């Protein structure tokens, strides 16, 4: 997808998307059936650019389907929440079930999970939904845990059709939304999602869509803004406000990058790999840019200077973030696989973790940070030439 004008042609010609077409139609039918039956709808989305674009697509397609006159009634039956991580925690699902029960629904509710949850740590929450008579629809692009495919009524994932994580959740949700109620805005949400997730399916020069992707990440992680899809949408549509927020975000990123240079250490191995270790405990948690984004920014800066397989590990108390370049992936590095090995080999040390081949996160149990980091260094050093 080399420019902004040929997204429709790409969608029509891509083999993975053609194989997913039936799933798009089935997902849209599940949502339309729930709307027509006046069922409660619970929608959770990952709180980053990709997840927000996925939620915006589904949200506005439902709004278009029911029309302005019936929208207030639909709004009262629809609960929408941002999910801060890739895991659907038991605390969140208990709250969700209780909120829906308080509605005293006459029809079985529908849960829609976007851009998160296809991991073993979320399985108990999915089972709790099913035990509470929810219909469960998931649209995600993270590498799959096999048992997740059996937990959902429908899982829409490129991995089931020969694709990979480059088909972002926002892109997938856009295709579902087009089957519910088509809008030309959906393609913009899809492009922003691909840019925000650094998908290789899209290659655009720096411009407005890149700015919008960063702005969504900034707004989603800032306490200055309310958690609202309507708010995200209004910012995207206000050029002056959008550019003002973009400048704020860039200033924060540049400031953090200067500090991060002092806390980065480069290791070089005989197998050709270079490993950057970045201390994240020097940065305040919960502020923009988040620790995952800091890791990504530092990784990108090193990648521009080093012509080699590169892995960056940002580490802080109980949390680690992985980034890798294409050369590292081609040379045998896989962040998701490495995390799976750590879960198996260090069961008492690992709390949870997962993600993509070149971008992932790991949560470590108290007191095991140093031990896990040492094991990660060994594993990168031992990757076969």
From TrEMBL:
Protein name according to UniProt: DHHA1 domain-containing protein
DDH domain mapped to chain residues: 42-178
Transmembrane segments: none
Gene3D superfamilies: 3.90.1640.30
Gene Ontology molecular-function annotations: exonuclease activity; nucleic acid binding
Pfam families: DHH, DHHA1
Species per Swiss-Prot/TrEMBL record: Fermentimicrarchaeum limneticum
Domain named DHHA1: residues: 292-384
Domain of life: Archaea
């Amino acid at each position: 997808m080399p420019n902004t004008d040929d997204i429709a042609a790409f969608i029509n010609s891509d083999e993975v998307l053609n194989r997913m077409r039936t799933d798009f139609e089935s997902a849209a039918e599940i949502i339309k059936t729930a709307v027509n039956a006046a069922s409660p709808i619970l929608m959770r989305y990952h709180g980053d650019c990709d997840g927000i674009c996925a939620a915006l697509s589904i949200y506005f397609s439902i709004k278009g389907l029911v029309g302005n006159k019936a929208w207030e009634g639909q709004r009262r039956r629809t609960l929408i929440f941002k999910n801060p991580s890739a895991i659907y925690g038991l605390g969140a699902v208990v709250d969700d079930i209780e909120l829906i029960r308080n509605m005293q629904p006459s029809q079985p509710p529908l849960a829609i999970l976007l851009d998160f949850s296809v991991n073993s740590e979320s399985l108990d929450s999915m089972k709790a939904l099913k035990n509470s008579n929810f219909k469960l629809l998931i649209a995600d692009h993270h590498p799959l845990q096999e048992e997740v495919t059996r937990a959902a009524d429908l899982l829409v994932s490129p991995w089931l059709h020969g694709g990979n994580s480059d088909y972002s959740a926002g892109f997938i949700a856009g295709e579902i939304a087009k089957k519910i109620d088509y809008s030309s805005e959906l393609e913009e949400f899809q492009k922003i999602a691909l840019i925000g997730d650094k998908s290789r399916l899209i290659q655009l020069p720096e411009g407005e869509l890149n700015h919008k992707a960063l702005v969504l990440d900034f707004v989603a992680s800032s306490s200055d803004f309310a958690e609202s899809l309507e708010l995200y949408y209004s910012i995207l549509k206000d050029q002056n406000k959008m550019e003002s927020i973009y400048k704020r975000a860039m200033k924060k990123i540049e400031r953090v990058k200067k500090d991060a240079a002092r806390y980065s250490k480069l290791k070089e191995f005989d197998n050709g790999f270079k490993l950057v270790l970045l201390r994240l405990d020097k940065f305040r948690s919960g502020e923009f840019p988040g620790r995952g984004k800091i890791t990504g920014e530092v990784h990108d800066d090193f990648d521009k200077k080093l012509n080699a397989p590169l892995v960056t590990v940002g580490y802080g108390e109980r949390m680690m973030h992985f980034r890798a370049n294409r050369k590292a992936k081609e040379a045998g590095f896989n962040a998701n696989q490495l995390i799976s090995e750590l879960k198996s080999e260090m069961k008492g040390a690992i709390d949870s973790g997962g993600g993509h081949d070149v971008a992932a996160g790991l949560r470590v149990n108290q007191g095991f940070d140093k031990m896990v980091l040492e094991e990660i260094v060994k594993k990168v050093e031992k990757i076969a030439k």
